[in-house]
């Protein structure tokens, strides 16, 4: 059954009007969903019985069943959710100095085939609906509410390629940003792509200033094609042409995510190539320690090597950050918990 989170406020107004209810009824329902965060239509006390019965007939509120929860010593929480069709998705809640950030999935599985990624161990089964994406945020908000904490940032970089599910992802982000819904500022929402050029071109036309991040991980076509098959379809020249057009149109700062893989992409050669590749762009590189996956041979760069690579980039004038390690004592790699769950069921 469809989740009511799938409906924007305008769609909910149209639904209520189709039942001969005034638009304010839709606003009341929205308030119950997003301000009071109820999980039962029966708890919407200012609705009449007939409308409640109709809502129960047409929708569920929460489409997620929490199958597993892992908590790291650093405060990272990883949720494994089962959906109505018996498929699984993961959501990660991370604690930072500035607050909590939720990393959400957009597809059940992934077809991008990045060789370092646990998400690609299981191919895409389907896209998530906007409501299934939003439900992950609501689950994180409820978890944090029990700790008297709040969610401050959203990163769309869990399982799946967001621009491969563009319409549902963008619909979800507009609801997440809506002042009458979850009300997280556009500049606190980042969407990550492995480099789907057509998606970047569409994203450049969006009216909201959501942040764009690129999963780069290599500064040359030969290495990037080995790590990320998508590079064969959209090589760096084509990708960066789209990014430069995007940057000129919006003057927004781009983020380039760069997993640190020991002996693969962390030498002075790659530092030189990164400097040249990013020249002239309003951008920075976010170096990310790799969460190792036993199904492949990649290893994360040592702390010393990571710091050395960071220093190389700084000396070359590249704006760079080095993200702290997160969730190393749990199934932290994207897709890892889900893959392990399927193994348990076999």
In short:
By secondary structure, the chain is an alpha/beta fold. The chain is 37% helix and 18% strand.
Describe this protein with a few key phrases.
single chain; 346 residues; alpha/beta; DNA polymerase, domain 1; TIM Barrel; 10-stranded mixed β-sheet; two-stranded antiparallel sheet; 12 helices; 37% helix
What does this structure look like?
This protein has 2 domains: 4-58, DNA polymerase, domain 1; 65-345, Aldolase class I (TIM Barrel, Alpha-Beta Barrel), CATH 3.20.20.70. It contains 12 helices and 12 strands. The model has no long low-confidence stretch (mean pLDDT 93). Helices cover 37% and strands 18% of the residues. With 346 residues, the chain is an alpha/beta fold. Helix 6 (197-203) packs parallel to helix 9 (236-250). Strand 8, helix 6 and strand 9 (211-215) form a beta-alpha-beta unit. The strands form 2 sheets. A 10-stranded mixed sheet has the order 1-2-3-4-7-8-9-10-11-12, covered by helices on one side. Strands 5-6 form a two-stranded antiparallel ribbon.
């Amino acid at each position: 059954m469809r989740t009511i989170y799938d409906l924007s406020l305008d769609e909910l107004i149209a639904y209520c009007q189709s039942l001969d209810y005034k638009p304010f009824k839709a606003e009341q329902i929205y308030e119950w969903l997003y301000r009071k965060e109820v999980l039962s239509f029966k708890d919407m006390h200012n609705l009449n019985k007939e409308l409640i019965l109709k809502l129960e007939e047409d929708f569920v509120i929460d489409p997620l069943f929490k199958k597993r929860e892992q908590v790291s010593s650093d405060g990272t929480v990883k949720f494994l959710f089962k959906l109505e069709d018996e498929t699984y998705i993961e959501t990660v809640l991370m604690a930072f100095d500035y607050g909590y950030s939720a990393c959400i999935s957009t597809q059940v599985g992934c077809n991008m085939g990045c060789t370092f990624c646990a998400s690609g161990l299981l191919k895409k089964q389907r896209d998530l609906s906007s409501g299934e994406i939003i439900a992950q945020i609501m689950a994180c908000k409820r978890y944090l509410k029990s700790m008297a904490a709040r969610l401050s940032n959203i990163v769309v970089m869990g399982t799946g390629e967001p621009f491969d599910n563009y319409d549902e992802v963008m619909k979800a982000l507009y609801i997440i940003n809506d002042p009458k819904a979850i009300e997280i500022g556009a500049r606190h929402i980042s969407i990550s792509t492995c480099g789907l050029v057509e998606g970047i071109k569409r994203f450049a036309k969006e009216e909201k200033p959501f942040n764009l991040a690129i999963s780069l991980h290599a500064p040359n076509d030969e290495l990037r094609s080995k790590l990320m098959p998508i590079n064969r379809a959209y090589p760096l020249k084509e990708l960066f042409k789209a990014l430069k057009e995007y940057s000129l149109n919006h003057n927004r700062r781009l983020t380039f995510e760069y997993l640190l893989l020991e002996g693969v992409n962390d030498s002075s050669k790659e530092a030189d190539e990164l400097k040249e590749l990013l020249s002239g762009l309003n951008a920075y590189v976010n170096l990310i320690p790799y969460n190792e996956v036993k199904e492949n041979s990649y290893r994360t760069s040592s702390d010393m090597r990571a710091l050395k690579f960071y220093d190389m980039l700084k000396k070359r004038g590249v704006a760079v950050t080095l993200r702290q390690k997160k969730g190393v004592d749990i199934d932290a790699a994207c897709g890892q918990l889900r893959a392990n769950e399927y193994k348990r069921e076999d």
